[in-house]
Known about the structure:
Four copies of one chain form a homotetramer.
Chain A: E1 4-5, E2 10-14, E3 21-27, H1 37-47, E4 65-68, E5 70-71, E6 74-75, E7 80-85, H2 94-99, H3 107-114, H4 131-146, E8 151-159, E9 162-163, H5 173-180, H6 189-204, E10 211-218, H7 232-240, E11 246-251, H8 262-265, E12 269-271, E13 277-279, E14 287-288, E15 291-292, E16 297-303, E17 313-317, E18 322-326, H9 337-356
Antiparallel strand pairs in A: 1-2, 2-3, 3-7, 4-7, 5-6, 8-9, 8-10, 10-16, 11-16, 12-13, 14-15, 17-18
Amino acid sequence: MSSEFGNTLRVSVFGESHGRAIGVTMQNLPAGEEIDLNALEALLDRRKPGKNALSTARHEPDRPVILSGLLEGKTTGSPLCAIIENRDARSRDYAELADKPRPGHADYTAYLKWAGQADMRGGGHFSGRLTAPLCIAGGIAKQILARKNIFVGAHLAAVAGIADEAFPLHPTQTQFDEIAGKDFPVIDDARGCDMQEAILAASHAGDSVGGVIECAAIGVPGGIGNPMFDGIENRLSAAIFGIPAVKGLEFGAGFAAAAMHGSENNDPYRMDDAGNITTTTNHAGGILGGISTGQPIVLRVAMKPTPSIAKPQQTVSLSRMENAELIVHGRHDPCVAHRAVPVVEAVTALVLLDFLLEQTNL
Amino acid sequence: MSSEFGNTLRVSVFGESHGRAIGVTMQNLPAGEEIDLNALEALLDRRKPGKNALSTARHEPDRPVILSGLLEGKTTGSPLCAIIENRDARSRDYAELADKPRPGHADYTAYLKWAGQADMRGGGHFSGRLTAPLCIAGGIAKQILARKNIFVGAHLAAVAGIADEAFPLHPTQTQFDEIAGKDFPVIDDARGCDMQEAILAASHAGDSVGGVIECAAIGVPGGIGNPMFDGIENRLSAAIFGIPAVKGLEFGAGFAAAAMHGSENNDPYRMDDAGNITTTTNHAGGILGGISTGQPIVLRVAMKPTPSIAKPQQTVSLSRMENAELIVHGRHDPCVAHRAVPVVEAVTALVLLDFLLEQTNL
Amino acid sequence: MSSEFGNTLRVSVFGESHGRAIGVTMQNLPAGEEIDLNALEALLDRRKPGKNALSTARHEPDRPVILSGLLEGKTTGSPLCAIIENRDARSRDYAELADKPRPGHADYTAYLKWAGQADMRGGGHFSGRLTAPLCIAGGIAKQILARKNIFVGAHLAAVAGIADEAFPLHPTQTQFDEIAGKDFPVIDDARGCDMQEAILAASHAGDSVGGVIECAAIGVPGGIGNPMFDGIENRLSAAIFGIPAVKGLEFGAGFAAAAMHGSENNDPYRMDDAGNITTTTNHAGGILGGISTGQPIVLRVAMKPTPSIAKPQQTVSLSRMENAELIVHGRHDPCVAHRAVPVVEAVTALVLLDFLLEQTNL
Amino acid sequence: MSSEFGNTLRVSVFGESHGRAIGVTMQNLPAGEEIDLNALEALLDRRKPGKNALSTARHEPDRPVILSGLLEGKTTGSPLCAIIENRDARSRDYAELADKPRPGHADYTAYLKWAGQADMRGGGHFSGRLTAPLCIAGGIAKQILARKNIFVGAHLAAVAGIADEAFPLHPTQTQFDEIAGKDFPVIDDARGCDMQEAILAASHAGDSVGGVIECAAIGVPGGIGNPMFDGIENRLSAAIFGIPAVKGLEFGAGFAAAAMHGSENNDPYRMDDAGNITTTTNHAGGILGGISTGQPIVLRVAMKPTPSIAKPQQTVSLSRMENAELIVHGRHDPCVAHRAVPVVEAVTALVLLDFLLEQTNL
């Protein structure tokens, strides 16, 4: 399956960082859905590098070209393929990297898997650049979900150990829009300033930092999902771990729940004022037994620090099979977590739309 | 896909807690593999309840009956189906639960999904009892992997906030065997005693506790896996989140990596004494870009506290659509994390064998 | 994938002819569907051997035991597993067959694939006996479809070159029931007598004959299916070729269409008296571009003659790698096509239900 | 799943006839395989229209642009995406067709499925033009298979009831090359002349004809495939029925086997001069129990006559829900079967490579 995910809504990503183009194919999109290309590009802009000192200066226009599946602004029901051409690819530095795998990168594992045949320039198919097509697909999914009153939002929950405040029990579409409109996607801007300082400090030290992203989906009806191996957590995790640099994932209280008592972690059911069943807490993150409760779906994603750093690092020479030192040249993001915020939203939206497309009317 | 996982090695679990039998089907097992049924039952015994005060007194003999796919002790290559008959199922208390969903359980979400048609007695298809067939399948996988010098082991890394020590950089088969032989599967028995006290204290208070399981696989060759959405993390996470009560998962340093600097988190490559490439740390948990590095694969699984507790809880009556109080009767495990240790091993072994079966000789 | 088919409705068959049990698991059945076990056994009886001189005397009671997924006669929504225990298995003759592969059987290919480790007694996992669990699954699907006014019927269209008449343009449920009630499932009983004579003649000559089955589904709404590789023909063919002995499949006019002119083969659209769009012919077999037209779905399945025959045959000895002669002992069906009629119905019903479960209400 | 097929080698086709581009993505290609682009275009040229009076004058340059997965002429192991831009698309005539579905086309079923939202200009995603990307993918597969001494060839076995001679028991690579080099892909050129006359006669009459394609694969080792639902016949049929206009498929003797006796249809095993096991006939088409025997794999594909014909036809007006007459304008192929010969080869090669990639070395 490699670079695909989804059961009914199949999303397939292709391309290498320094190849001719990267892109995405979406199968089984519903027909007749209007796609607002400006809104789509706005989402792509949120992950775009080069906006400020916090990210690489590489210029990525990231304008998607839709090759199929769209007619007069509406989906046709047949596969939608969108590509982004690669332009600003300088591969001159790659010779050294081909011999000296960068610690923390996929250089060495790709070398083992494909016996040195992979196109690993700029990270190749493993590059964070492949998250741009994911945002195209996810942006389309978000537009379709919004018409069903389902909204997905995310923020940078932590960087280098500095935490943003958490989403409230019931995040709103307004809050999602507000965060999406910020240059630095946090709830509490003061903590956001501290995070940015930590990123810059790491950058000046030739180093990098990781981060945590919190994502929520509101409006998902209860009863969506499946038990055991095909629930919301299963499909979401399989897709979320496809985002480069993700090393951890938790739903609701997650790892914190492991230290709680049952009486504390269980979410009590109550009738709300409108006569609907709700819960007074949401430690389950909106999912019980793989199936949605009707409460917000909440997940937290841990991203490791960017492996490409300016500091000298210990590695080996594959050709000589001996220890070596490596200095990675070029400009690299000292942190990718803030740019990954719309990517986590995109993947979450795609998985939720996948489930909704399976709601049968039989 | 529901209750299935795996790409080549398809594992499909069926059954309800109080139905006639539960079981598992494995497709695409290699032929001619000898299966030691005694070793298989030993693994099942590790998850068996009723061993001591820490777990429910429900008597589950859990003797697997293999219906197909095995001839004279060897796999035949065609689907292997194994079942466990249900005997000790007392469903008398279910009428109240059918109306009053237990907080933290799948009662309410199953009700929404199947409009009240599910067999939810004893947790139905969502019951932790379904992990017994998983252990049968995983035990078979472990035996096949062991012949390839691949070993999977796990321990209870934390309960109620009390932490065991972590696996060393290079866990050994001996260490795995030693832990598997213990009544309470921890590395440091002193901390294990503290954990057991915390479990008993929760039990006496009519409450429950959660826990964390650390699992490692040694001997996995480098170069196994796939990029993006079909890597080791993707497939493992999709399967691990199928174990009831799992709410979080991390690989290697995981969430801790999100607070590290790149210079700290990156695992330096070094030549070892035997002339092989190794890393001096293993924050990647043996996986980079979805592909194995050749170092131990390490994951940590967060399990929430058992939702069934003796304390009165707030819920609603589905028939009357009004608030209600619930007292869950019967005996329930005050902690399931220690019993889930072999389950996490089983699922991990199944996913790794799935990948190994895809290593082509083309 | 092996012994599974279906996308949403996953059907997985297990067991070997002389093993402990054979069975089937169905995933993603809708919940709350009442299953009439007597009707289910009536369908199984239609494929049962030993009814008359036309088929083997092997006694197969074929009483299904449902292990899971059914509560008080209704589906629960979780996987339904049903098994049939094997009783009348006499494996004494197998030693010779293990060395001398029977021409036309899977003995030799199974030997190549599994290096002699397969349980091939009685045909093993390749045995026609595995169609009994298929009939259990298909019988359940037929009951669910019938509630949607979709009916599937079949008849023996040809045996040994003797043809039954074809289904009319619009077959009816009454006609399906009538054929299903016959001992020998043809439309024209006179031709059925000729066919039975041909079968008996072959039997007396120590030989066997093949046949063709025509199957139709009525009431399938238009617009079901998908273009290209996931249409009705694609999924049906993938499943139908899983029935042992099937070597050909055509939809509508099929191979005859290849000799027609377009003006003859195209089905003209007309408004019917009720104001609905219909076609005046159905050469498309109810499928255009992989999607249903609303007309009856019609397919024809070619089954080769039973490979096990009493006549001496040329083969080789695998142990000595030299030419050998083989005489297959025991009783074998001189024709399996008439017993396969309900099997083709069963598989067709399963595939159609699979598609219907994917009709979304988004 | 829609427009994808393959288990390990995933082939995904996208595009509409009159959209911006059509294309194909291949996942899990082995790395380091050299691709000869000239040979690839030679295969594409074999299906190209406009070569002579037998096919449409529409100009399709069909030059593939490879966007990813290829570096310096070799596959990289990551997804290979190739596109063909659409240029010669004149959609002026589509307004009438959108209201009056063409008999024998997918116009009406697409209308039902997507409520009139599909881009059906020129046949849209159902167009025979989508077989061009299939040929790109299949051409790549053929080159990889050839290095394993596996060759796939095909010829036009019949047109309008005029039959070519059949492949011999052991077709050769030389024969495949010879047929591929012909303008009209038959074994017996005299019969080919008759066929061409029949096509021209139909064309002059404003009509069209269908045809049968015979395809063979030589060099496939024995023991490839799986029992029941994932054998060679299952996967091949699911893919072959994805080629537009295919309505029938048979393996080996196929429908003819249904009229044979077992003693005639069974292929006797014999030792050949080189000491290998062979069969003296090949009625099984190289497949028993879904698994290859080592003999040539042989299949025959029935294609219906082109539904677009110049003669007036009866249809309905969807807007007015009343009977209507339709005259299809523009130039259309009076036969597509001869152009589909390389397409059948392409799909067969892709499915066989898919199986070979699953041969494990565990």
